[in-house]
Write a structure and sequence with these properties.
Blueprint lengths: L3 E7 L5 E6 L2 H10 L2 E4 L7 E4 L3 E2 L9 E3 L3 E5 H10 L14 E4 L3 H12 L6 E4 L3 H12 L10 E4 L10 E4 L15 H18 L4 E4 L4 H12 L6 E3 L3 H15 L6 E2 L2 E2 L7 E2 L5 E2 L2 E2 H4 L13 H18 L4 H15 L4 E8 L11 E9 L2 E5 L6 H20 L12 H4 L1
Parallel strand pairs: 8-9, 8-11, 9-10, 11-12, 12-13
Antiparallel strand pairs: 1-2, 1-5, 1-7, 3-4, 6-7, 14-17, 15-16, 17-18, 19-20, 20-21
Helix pairs in contact: 3-10, 5-6, 7-9
The structure holds 1,4-dihydronicotinamide adenine dinucleotide and pyruvic acid.
Pyruvic acid binds next to loops.
Length: 423
Amino acid sequence: MHDFAIEINRNLSSENTSIAAHNEDEARRTLSRNKKLNIAHNGFKNQQITISDIVILTSLRTYYRSFLNKIVFFPNSEMNIRTKILWNVQPHLENVGDKVSIIGAGMVGIATAVSVLGTGVTKNLVLVDAFGDKVKGEVMDLQQGSLFLKYPRISGGNDFSATQGSKLCIITAGVRQEAGESRLTLAQRNSDIMVKLVPELIKYSPETILLMVGNPCDVLTYVAWKVSGLPQHKVLGAGTTLDTQRFRVLIAKKFRVNPANVHAWIIGEHGDNSIPLWSSVNISGMKLKDLNPLIGRHNDPEKWIDLHREVIGAAGAIQELKGYTNWGVGMSVAAMARSILGNKLAIYPVSVNANGKYGIADDIFLPLPAVLGSNGVCDIINLNLSPEELASLQDTAALLKTVQDGIHIKGADVKCKCRRCRT
Ligand SMILES: NC(=O)C1=CN([C@@H]2O[C@H](COP(=O)(O)OP(=O)(O)OC[C@H]3O[C@@H](n4cnc5c(N)ncnc54)[C@H](O)[C@@H]3O)[C@@H](O)[C@H]2O)C=CC1
Ligand SMILES: CC(=O)C(=O)O
């Protein structure tokens, strides 16, 4: 009795056959030595097939390990039982074109995964993390809940090849800031991680869209764009989506209405230099600024400005309480993914290349409301900003440029343009 078997589905005949080996290595060796195999098996003897004829069968996935992404191995006994129960008609498809990979299975990565799974964004979710045991544990844990999910296919590990053929890669890997620390202090450390990680993703998914979540989100989106070589519409960051939802929730509380019915934007930077667009905040078309012309100013007796202070302090406040933030961002990233995969053309304030907009004349990635569809960023909204809002946006762009220019992109296949390398 051989320990391992390879079940092979012949593309054209749709018939199953198998070869046996004492172990998986022996089977691999046999396959790589012979580009053609003579297969002796019940129904059809000594037929020749080429490796390209071989297509995987993918049910009972938990037990499989793939080889060349094409052939599946599993204990002989299981194969025998399986072939007794199932007449295979067609190979099961591994990737139906909406594969989502989440890189970084930390607090944010797992919250994103749960939100993606809970809302049925993809039929194929992959989790990758440098810390192999942790990600394997997370994947096993999630798989055990898969009978309650709309689409139960979840896999992952510490090997980037698992991301092959991703339509969307969500990057949550990286260090997080401490409570009270600016996200911008993480720029070089997390950029070094992106320089290693992004080329791996592109190697396996050259057509992918990259959605950056790690901090400082806007600056890392710029780094990912540089390092990936992707067109700018395919590289975006979560931007001020979280800041904007925090803002809307706080306004909604004041009015006791649903935050979905509060129309308000924060743009400019995910962080301490974010810009609330008071000039356009409205509920059912009723602009708050028309009713309180001082809204958002220091001399406003109603002190609406405190809401923005609360938005800026929100991450720190949650970190003081539980050490990290993850659910708010996870849910919004899943919503952005849904707009991209479902071509929903929903608008989110994401980090995009602002060159040529609002008087910005450099490749600076910062959050602006943009339409997200299956191409990634389809349009950027031309906002009617007040003079103060425009000036703040230009100041923030100048600050982000300083940070971008300070980042040394080492080891990537791009010319570093940091101040040090230029001089
Ligand atoms: N954009 C936003 O709105 C938000 C961004 N964040 C940011 O998200 C990032 C992640 O935060 P957490 O999940 O809380 O951190 P975490 O420490 O819980 O998880 C980070 C994960 O990244 C993994 N990792 C590190 N280097 C890697 C590499 N080269 N390849 C694969 N995996 C790698 C680590 O093993 C770890 O599991 C931080 O930068 C944080 O500041 C957090 C909340 C909101
Ligand atoms: C950590 C972070 O960026 C946030 O919660 O806003």
